Fold this sequence. Notes:
Layout: E1 2-7, H1 15-28, E2 33-37, H2 43-50, E3 57-60, H3 66-75, E4 80-84, H4 91-98, E5 102-107, H5 111-114, H6 118-126, E6 131-138, H7 142-152, E7 164-165, H8 169-175, H9 180-183, H10 188-204, H11 210-217
Parallel strand pairs: 1-4, 1-5, 2-3, 2-4, 5-6, 6-7
Helix pairs in contact: 1-10
Amino acid sequence: xxxxxxxxxxxxxxxxxxxxxxxxxxxxxxxxxxxxxxxxxxxxxxxxxxxxxxxxxxxxxxxxxxxxxxxxxxxxxxxxxxxxxxxxxxxxxxxxxxxxxxxxxxxxxxxxxxxxxxxxxxxxxxxxxxxxxxxxxxxxxxxxxxxxxxxxxxxxxxxxxxxxxxxxxxxxxxxxxxxxxxxxxxxxxxxxxxxxxxxxxxxxxxxxxxxxxxxxxx
Length: 218
């Protein structure tokens, strides 16, 4: 079973939205996926209550340890688990990072966003397996993204070449318990998520068909 943790010290950068989108994209890719909402705000849990589809499975901690929840999902046959963490420096983030094959730092493109990610990057790099940075809720203007990428280069972590632009497909789909690629298949938001997932798979070393790769990595 593969585990991805999404982390960000700063709130409002769309970390929970990314967690849902990547989990659903993995599902579309043929993987049995689950999400652990370790954020006390419960954004993903609230989304799951609006969702009609039964997958991906979404669980909170509810007094259960992260280790126990991960073991339960592995026993249930999950190929991939995405962990959504609190927007802070919380002990659960370190625990999630240690349990993960990959830690993805989610950030917006603006100076306030970028200045807040240093400690989260250190967590991602410190767990010793793999990490990367996703630019989310960005404008479509290339100049703003170029400046953000330049500022992020100092952290020496892979930066996803495809940013996720702030599009109405994300909040509208969320209100219906969906993700952008389900709400508007083939749309610009869906294509961006597909590219981010393709990059994520490369970081995870998934080159074989999804189910075979997940089994081999277990």
